[in-house]
Design goal:
The complex is a heterotrimer of chains A (306), B (372) and C (305).
Chain A lengths: L1 H10 L5 H6 L1 H30 L13 H7 L2 H34 L2 H11 L1 H4 L2 H11 L6 H8 L11 H29 L3 H9 L4 H29 L3 H6 L11 H11 L3 H9 L1 H22 L1
Helix pairs in contact in A: 5-10, 5-12, 10-12, 12-16, 14-15
Chain B lengths: L3 E9 L4 E10 L4 E5 L6 H9 L6 E6 L2 E2 L10 E4 L11 H11 L4 H15 L14 H14 L4 E5 L7 H17 L3 E6 L2 H7 L2 E6 L2 E6 L1 H6 L4 H6 L6 E10 L2 E5 L5 E3 L5 H4 L6 E6 L4 E3 L9 E6 L3 E4 L4 E7 L2 E7 L11 E6 L4 E3 L14
Parallel strand pairs in B: 3-8, 3-9, 6-7, 7-8
Antiparallel strand pairs in B: 1-2, 1-4, 4-5, 9-10, 11-12, 11-14, 12-13, 14-21, 15-20, 16-20, 17-18, 18-19
Chain C lengths: L4 H6 L4 H41 L3 H5 L13 H8 L1 H34 L5 H13 L2 H19 L9 H5 L1 H17 L3 H9 L4 H12 L1 H17 L2 H6 L8 H10 L6 H21 L1 H13 L2
Helix pairs in contact in C: 2-15, 4-15, 5-9, 5-12, 5-14, 6-9, 9-12, 10-11, 12-15, 12-16, 14-15
Classes of the chains: A mainly alpha (306), B alpha+beta (372), C mainly alpha (305).
The structure holds adenosine-5'-triphosphate and magnesium ion.
The site of magnesium ion has 3 residues of chain B, from helix 1.
Chain lengths: 306, 372, 305
């Protein structure tokens, strides 16, 4: 019993600096410190600073409150950018999701030893740096030498102004985005398809379900989570996209294909009005935040299940 | 010399008290098994000895020194986990020697110890394999080998056999016992399997709900359990508990059960129970002490016990018979040749020299001293 | 598609008929699958294929009215010219340097952080893990303007010129790579059984040794996936270098090709396509050799954790 008494007196710790440095929680904190600094200094601080910048005048000498926002609301181009960003993101994501789902199904359908090869080929658009592949599209869409128009000409059709006409330009940027992004959906859906147990399909087959019923009653419900999370991820990335529009149309013709990212680059960096550029890009925040919150809910839910 | 002792050890997680004040001393080279139902705090106790969990209160000593604040690596212990926890990217010999290599032992010393352990465990041929190329039993041996090469003061096992199939488990059980005889080291072994506990242990520690119910040699726990929990936990099928009343009839003491069943206590136990005459008690009687009527063997005092079987379960060596006394179900263990049938009344023999009477309130077995 | 024995027994009476019709419909399903796969593959591979064709053409052939989908007089002229221009080689060097250093920095920051976050609980660690995930969702298009201004302020305060130096990208790119890599490494580390580090702890390993000798080797596939991700993101990044570097000797490949080869009225498409194809080559080569890791990393981001 005297041992016990002695033990409890030993147990009262005297924390010297050295001991503090040896504590697991201290070591853990030090291990995450670079990450914390990175997030703090290069993500959180700039994000907050953007809000500050948005309240200054062009010369960044005077506080103008909501002046920049009022100015933006008064400009037609701004509303066009809002509209185009939404059209661009939503249309592209919907088509990427559909194409990804369909292609994933076809890949899943074929014998598994051939799947690797097809999957490998079909993911190539996602692997090429977008700036590089958009250049190829730019060349395919060239006003005078478009290879597509050459094919159309063989059938006697008129040449299409791929990037010259407002509506065709919108179509083109969306098409390129779909081309780059649907392989990602395909891969995600393929992984999800593989996780659906075969027995379910066999049971459904015995119950007499046709292929459409099998997709509707088994595949889709089983994949619901992954479909939602992939779509939301893609929505964020597509909404904030820069490379494609910048290279393909640079916002033209007549600013009709600008999205938030390209327009804020034009205003903030190229025209040198940093506060206005910051204000433009800040408009992405609420959209992104909503998508992020939904994703996060799902991630946290899954974390607590695990 | 490596004695492990726990003094009033408490472990509290937010809200729950997993271990609620344990006092236990494990002698040098002793093999102690902690046994108890799931969630009773066995693993937590073992992990506190290992230093993997901090101790909320109390003290743990290894070899005379308080180790509360000593990190696991300096406690000179080795541990074998339920899922083996072999490093998947290392070969068997690398797995076994990892600890020694970290401590910068000389190469030939490492070699010698690994070979020695491999020889003891019969895994000499496996030394160059990766864990995924091994069967469950082989992995288990490697995990033990990793503990042996360290030559620690204390071995800790946390349910090391529960991932093995029944046959292999029996085989490895004997193996562990053999290894302990060859390499006698203080051992603390956690299991929820009472057969493992009984066969391996020098002493068994029965835990329940964060406290120690009883400590004792296997036979002691079987024959003289101190509490209803221990009486029911040790032995399979477990002890029957029947509500009863203790009465006096002339010189004799009688236990009266429901349905008018009455059993006369043997003369030797009168003294022990005299003070409880007239009380409502609980009778504890193991199935193996409730058998077909046969000539009493040495020391048996039998009393007739009428029964109408509800369920008959032939087990091969014996046949389990379930029947009811009042509203309580009772299990008896009969010789298959007695051939009991459902619904046909029989008379069983209760070996009253082996029965216990328990206090229904405290759950203590009467006539034993409570755990101190 | 072999039926389970149980279900086969259930359907035994109807089996002969159903089996015949099933295999016929499956054959058709297979044909349609291949048909559409060929169609989609054609669509997906068309631009890179067209890049390759164009890169093999002379300027004369490019501007001729011949079939653009065919090379009549193949030549390596574009490749030779590009690979002997100092400018293009500088872009390549800058890209390679930036990507390799960023990959190293990313791993040095994110692996220990992921280890700490998945194994050593400390005050705020759960919040930080969630924060890492959120940071990964913040696009660079939101940050480049304030960062541009901040870097200008840094110059005013300290005299260190950050803008228009290729190494400024070493500060910027980790904001894109570290959160994702940390996030997927947390997932990979979390899937390592807890007993493994406890065994290491008992064996006498320090936290650092547990990380380097146990966790990193065991989670090596994840580490490779994260490395590939960090490399491809760094290699492909376009907005940051476009905003932060302007002198031609400071440009990385994507920006270099877009700004120098396109500028002016004369588009030399043969060279542009050659440059783009060469610029796409490193990620493609890595992908070709490490496809499974690449795909594991892609799916891990959304399914792990
Ligand atoms: N990290 C923890 N946080 C909170 N409670 C815990 C933690 N670890 C264990 N417990 C609780 O402590 C109690 C004892 O757990 P312990 O693992 O020691 O049980 P056990 O006897 O080993 O059971 P089993 O046979 O199932 O392994 C349980 O009620 C458990 O829920
Ligand atoms: Mg346990």
């Amino acid at each position: 019993m005297s041992q016990t008494a002695q033990a409890s007196s030993v147990a009262v710790p005297r924390r010297t600096m050295r001991q503090w440095l040896k504590r697991p929680s201290t070591i853990a904190f030090l291990m995450t410190l670079p990450l914390i600094l990175l997030i703090g200094l290069l993500v959180l601080y700039p994000a907050g600073y953007a809000i500050h910048l948005a309240t200054l005048n062009k010369g960044m000498t005077r506080f103008v409150g909501f002046g920049n926002f009022e100015f933006l609301f008064g400009r037609e181009t701004f509303w066009m950018v809002v509209k185009q960003s939404c059209i661009f993101a939503i249309t592209a994501v919907v088509f990427k999701a559909i194409i990804g789902f369909v292609v994933a199904h076809f890949v899943h359908n074929i014998p598994s030893k051939g799947q690797r090869k097809w999957r490998g080929m079909l993911l190539v658009p996602w692997v090429i740096p977008p700036a590089m592949s958009t250049l190829a599209w730019l060349w395919l869409f060239d006003p005078s030498y478009s290879a597509f128009n050459w094919v159309l000409a063989q059938f006697g059709a008129d040449p299409v102004p791929w990037t010259g006409d407002a509506y065709w330009a919108r179509f083109s940027v969306i098409l390129v985005n779909i081309w780059i992004g649907s392989p990602f959906f395909m891969i995600m859906y393929l992984a999800a398809l593989k996780s659906v147990p075969d027995q379910l399909y066999e049971a459904a087959l015995i119950d007499g379900a046709n292929w459409w019923q099998r997709i509707w009653y088994i595949t889709l419900p089983m994949m619901r989570n992954i479909i939602a999370i992939t779509a939301l991820f893609s929505l964020i990335v597509t909404f904030a996209n820069f490379d494609i529009v910048r290279i393909l149309t640079a916002g033209g013709p007549l600013d009709l294909t600008h999205v938030f990212a390209t327009w804020s680059f034009l205003v903030g960096i190229e025209s040198g009005d940093i506060p206005l550029g910051a204000s433009v890009s800040l408009f992405m925040m609420p959209f992104l935040a909503i998508a992020a919150v939904i994703i996060l809910r799902d991630v946290v839910k899954r974390g607590s299940q695990a | 010399m490596a004695e492990v002792s726990l003094h009033k050890v408490v472990k509290r997680y937010e809200g729950v008290e997993a271990v609620r004040g344990i006092d236990l001393t494990i002698g040098d080279k002793e093999f102690v098994v902690l046994v108890g139902p799931s969630g009773c705090g066995k693993s937590t106790t073992l992990r506190m000895i290992a230093g993997l969990e901090e101790i909320t209160d109390g003290a743990i000593q290894i070899d005379g020194t308080v180790v509360n604040d000593v990190p696991p690596k300096d406690r000179d212990i080795a541990m074998v986990f339920q899922n083996y926890a072999l490093y998947p990217h290392m070969t068997v010999s690398e797995n076994m020697s990892f600890g020694l290599r970290l401590k910068r032992f000389p190469k030939d010393e490492i070699r010698r110890r690994v070979d020695e352990a491999a020889r003891i465990l019969n895994i000499e041929d496996l030394l160059e394999r990766k864990p995924r190329q091994l069967s469950g039993g082989q992995r288990q041996r490697v995990a033990m080998g990793r503990a042996i090469v360290r030559n620690p003061k204390v071995f800790l096992f946390d349910e090391p056999l529960s991932n093995l199939d029944a046959k292999l488990r029996v085989q490895m059980r004997t193996e562990i016992k053999r290894v302990h005889q060859q390499v006698p080291v203080t051992t603390v072994y956690v299991t929820h399997d009472q057969v493992e506990a009984m066969t391996l242990a020098d002493r068994v520690v029965v835990m329940n709900d964060g406290v120690i119910e009883q400590v004792g040699a296997p036979n002691e726990l079987y024959h003289s359990p101190r509490t209803r929990f221990v009486a029911g936990f040790i032995g399979s099928p477990s002890m029957n508990f029947l509500r009863c009343k203790l009465d006096r009839e002339g010189e004799d003491l009688m236990v009266r059960l429901a349905d008018g069943v009455a059993l006369t206590l043997p003369a030797e136990s009168r003294e022990r129970y005299r003070e409880h005459v007239g009380r409502e008690l609980v009778l504890g009687l193991r199935p193996e002490h409730l058998t077909e009527t046969r000539p009493p063997r040495n020391g048996e005092v039998v009393a007739p016990f009428p029964a109408v079987p509800d369920v008959v379960e032939p087990m091969g060596m014996d046949t389990l018979v379930y029947f009811r006394v009042g509203r309580e179900e009772v299990c008896a263990r009969m010789d298959p040749s007695a051939n009991p049938r459902v619904g046909e009344p029989i008379t069983l023999a209760a070996n009253l020299a082996r029965m216990h009477l328990l206090d229904p309130g405290s759950g203590l077995v009467l006539g034993t001293r409570p755990t101190g | 598609m072999s039926a389970q024995t149980g279900s086969a027994a259930q359907a035994s009476r109807a089996q002969p008929v159903r089996y015949g019709s099933m295999s016929r419909s499956r054959r058709w399903a297979l044909r349609w699958s291949y048909f559409f796969l060929v169609l989609f593959a054609a669509f997906f591979l068309l631009p890179p294929f067209y890049m390759l064709i164009t890169s093999l053409k002379t300027s004369a052939e490019i501007s001729a009215a011949t079939n653009p989908w065919w090379v009549f007089s193949p030549t390596l002229e574009n490749y030779i010219e590009l690979l002997t221009t100092d400018q293009y080689l500088v872009f390549f060097r800058n890209s390679a340097l930036v990507s390799l250093i960023v990959v190293t920095l990313t791993m040095v920051i994110s692996v220990p952080a992921a280890f700490a976050l998945s194994r050593m609980k400390f005050w705020g660690s759960a919040t930080l893990a969630t924060g890492v995930f959120l940071t990964y969702l913040v696009p660079e298009t939101l940050l480049f303007i304030p960062l541009f201004k901040i870097f200008a302020e840094v110059r005013n305060l300290t005299g260190i010129e950050l803008i228009n130096n290729w190494w400024v990208l070493l500060i910027l790119y980790p904001t894109l790579t570290v959160p994702f890599c940390t996030w997927i490494m947390i997932g990979y580390f979390a899937s390592i059984p807890k007993e493994l580090d406890e065994a290491a702890l008992i064996d006498g390993a320090t936290w650092m040794q547990t990380l380097t000798k146990i966790f990193i080797p065991v989670a090596l596939p994840g580490l490779i996936a994260a490395t590939i991700f960090a490399f491809t993101v760094s290699w492909a990044q376009f907005l940051y270098p476009l905003a932060f570097t302007t002198s031609t000797d400071q440009l990385v490949l994507p920006v270099g090709i877009v700004t120098t080869l396109i500028k002016g009225d004369v588009f030399n498409w043969g060279q542009i396509m050659t440059g783009a194809l060469l610029g796409a080559a490193p990620p493609l080569v890595i992908y070709a050799f490490l496809m499974d890791y690449y795909i594991a990393g892609l799916t891990a981001g959304a399914t792990k954790g």
